[in-house]
Design a protein that fits this description.
Number of helices: 13
Number of strands: 0
Helix content: 55-70%
Largest sheet: none
Structural class: mainly alpha
Mean pLDDT: 87
Distance between the termini: 32 Å
Order of helices and strands: HHHHHHHHHHHHH
Radius of gyration: 19 Å
Oligomer: single chain
Shape: elongated
Length: 244
C-alpha cells in the first residue's frame, strides 16, 4: 500500500474549545454571542455562583480571548471548576489544555484522564481524542482495539473525525480485520459531514481506498453509507472544529 494513506496518521481530533450553553433561551444566547464582553460578564456572575455551564463558558471566553483578554491559566481554572462538577464539555476542554500544554504543564496522561471522563458521558470529541491516545500510545499504552472502540463510539454519533479514525483502522487492519468496504464507508461518511480542508482530505482518502477496491465492493460501501444512521448527536463543540 502506498500514497498518503500508507504514511498518514489519523487526523487529530483535538480542536476548538467551544460549546453550546443551555442556561438561556436561544435568542438570549445568540444576543450574548454578538456581544462578547457582555457575555463574559454574564458568565462570570453565574460562574461565581457555582453554575457549571457558566464556568465552562467563562473558560471558553478566556481560552479564545472573547470579551476578556486571552488567558489560558484563567481558562484552565474555570474549566477545572466546571469539570469537577461533572460538566462533560469542561472535562473535554480541560483534557485539551493538558494535551496542548496551554495554561498547564503538558501531560498526556492527565489529558487522557479528563478525555475519558468526558467520553464516558458521550462527548464525541473526547471519545475521538481517547481513540487517538490509544492509537498513538499517548498517555496510555498503545492499544488498537481500544482505539477502535472509542473511534467507533464517536463515529456512530456522526462525528466526522471519529468516522475517519475508524475508517483508517479498517483500512490498515489495526484493531479490526482489514476491510476496505468498511474503510470506504466510514471515510465517505466523514467526508460528507466535514467541511473545509478536512473534507478535502477525507475525499482524497476515500478516493484512494476506492482505487484498491472492486466495483462490487465500492457499490456495497456506497450502499452502507447511504443506509447508515447516527445513534446519537455529536457534541455541539464539533461545530467549531475548524476554528482552532
Amino acid at each position: 500500500m502506498t500514497s498518503f494513506w500508507k504514511i498518514a496518521a489519523p487526523v487529530t481530533c483535538v480542536a476548538v474549545i467551544c460549546g453550546a450553553a443551555l442556561l438561556w433561551p436561544v435568542y438570549q444566547e445568540e444576543a450574548l454571542e454578538r456581544k462578547p464582553a457582555e457575555a463574559a460578564r454574564v458568565y462570570r456572575a453565574r460562574a461565581e455562583r457555582g453554575e457549571a455551564k457558566a464556568q465552562y463558558r467563562l473558560g471558553d471566553s478566556y481560552a479564545q480571548g472573547k470579551g476578556v483578554p486571552q488567558d489560558y491559566f484563567e481558562a484552565v481554572r474555570w474549566y477545572r471548576k466546571a469539570a469537577k462538577q461533572g460538566n462533560a464539555n469542561a472535562e473535554y476542554a480541560l483534557g485539551y489544555m493538558y494535551h496542548q500544554g496551554q495554561g498547564v504543564k503538558q501531560d498526556d496522561a492527565e489529558a487522557v484522564r479528563w478525555f475519558r471522563q468526558a467520553a464516558e458521558q458521550g462527548n464525541a470529541q473526547a471519545q475521538c481524542n481517547l481513540g487517538d491516545s490509544y492509537a498513538q500510545g499517548h498517555g496510555v499504552p498503545q492499544d488498537y482495539a481500544e482505539a477502535v472502540r472509542w473511534y467507533r463510539a464517536a463515529a456512530e454519533q456522526g462525528y466526522p473525525m471519529g468516522q475517519y479514525g475508524i475508517g483508517f483502522m479498517y483500512y490498515h487492519g489495526r484493531g479490526v480485520p482489514q476491510d476496505y468496504i468498511q474503510a470506504h464507508m466510514w471515510t465517505s461518511l466523514a467526508a460528507s459531514g466535514a467541511s473545509g480542508d478536512a473534507k478535502q482530505y477525507f475525499v482524497r482518502a476515500a478516493n484512494h481506498i476506492a482505487g484498491e477496491m472492486t466495483p462490487e465492493q465500492i457499490i456495497e460501501a456506497e450502499r452502507l453509507a447511504r443506509e447508515w444512521k447516527p445513534r446519537g448527536q455529536p457534541s455541539a463543540r464539533s461545530e467549531h472544529d475548524s476554528q482552532r
